Amino acid sequence: MNYEIKKLLPGLYMVATPIGNARDITLRALDILASADLIAAEDTRTARKLMDIHGVPLGDRQVIAYHDHSGDGPRGRVATVVAGGGSVAYVSEAGTPLIADPGYALGRAVSDAGGAVFAAPGASAALAALAVSGLPTDQFAFLGFLPNTQSARQSALADLRKLAMTVVVYESPKRVRDLLADLVQVLGADCPVVVCRELTKKFEEVVRGRAGDVVQMLDEKSPRGEYVVLIGHAGQVAASDDDIRSALVEAMKTARVKDAANMVAGAMGLPKREVYQLALTLDRPTQGE
Ligand code: SAM
């Protein structure tokens, strides 16, 4: 038996569940699932199955369905249980609740009513992907799912030039190829990417490379399963010194050296000081050139 039935502090417990391998559950998560007065789940069948796999008995407790669109009914019920001194475990379909998953409105409802919200941390596909990516993790941005329409997606990708850090996005198998193709178009074929598929599962796969090569690999087989795409800092690779010089020459036709350097640094996601130093080495073009 891997769980203990305990008297939990009153509150809502956001319980992380595995993203593939059922054994990636924490002992504390099992304790909470075994002990909470009420269990709320994005998908009640998945929650029951997980408890079953780990031999956690449900007894006469209920598992209720909760999604952030569920409305005030189930949310009110959870808040009432917590307000009455009880405990509620919330699990999303996989991974950490609230991370591209429901739970936000539930947590707010409980905390706004003065109840406690606790985390039982565990798996999340974003963190698992960062851990295997080989890309810098000192700073990263998680953008969840990018927009479905091509124009909105391309404009979201263009904004990444300003982010000097690794970017993590989730994508469905239906759209992952389109995402990579847009990446090539907007950030260039040299943009470093890592595509993580089916992490912790039987067909786990991690492909690291340039966007231009990776999109070709996706063309060769039809994508299946769950994907996380990590994008390296595009500005570092996409812009060569020649690219920066040309942009500076262009900007300096109409702006003062410092303003031109700031404009170019902003557009290419580069450090202002370095671009300014480079600008100082250039001849200022004559007006109207
Ligand atoms: N809450 C989850 C978490 O903490 O990662 C994410 C839920 S979101 C609805 C589902 C998406 O997460 C999938 O479409 C995929 O992009 C990513 N994902 C989930 N499990 C994955 C896995 N095992 N391997 C790769 N990506 C995964």
Q: What are the defining features of this structure?
A:
single chain, 41% helix, 17% strand, binds S-adenosylmethionine, five-stranded mixed β-sheet, Cobalt-precorrin-4 Transmethylase, domain 1, 3 domains, Methyltransferase, Cobalt-precorrin-4 Transmethylase, Domain 2, 12 helices, 289 residues, alpha/beta, five-stranded parallel β-sheet
Low-confidence runs: none
Tally of strands: 10
Helix fraction, binned, reads: 40-55%
Large-scale geometry? elongated
Q: Give the spatial strand order of the biggest sheet.
A: 3-2-4-1-5
State the end-to-end CA separation: 79 Å
Task: Walk me through this protein's architecture.
The protein has helices at residues 27-35, 44-53, 72-83, 104-112, 125-133, 150-159, 176-187, 211-220, 234-238, 241-251, 257-268, 272-280; strands at 11-15, 38-41, 63-65, 87-91, 117-120, 140-145, 166-171, 192-197, 205-210, 227-231. With 289 residues, the protein is an alpha/beta fold. It has 3 domains: 11-123, Cobalt-precorrin-4 Transmethylase, domain 1; 126-231, Methyltransferase, Cobalt-precorrin-4 Transmethylase, Domain 2 (2-Layer Sandwich); 241-280. The strands form 2 sheets. It has a 5-stranded parallel beta sheet with strand order 3-2-4-1-5, with helices on both faces. A 5-stranded mixed beta sheet has the order 6-7-10-8-9. Helix 7 (176-187) packs antiparallel against helix 8 (211-220). The chain is elongated, with a radius of gyration of 24 Å. The site of S-adenosylmethionine has 23 residues, from helix 5, strand 7 and strand 10.
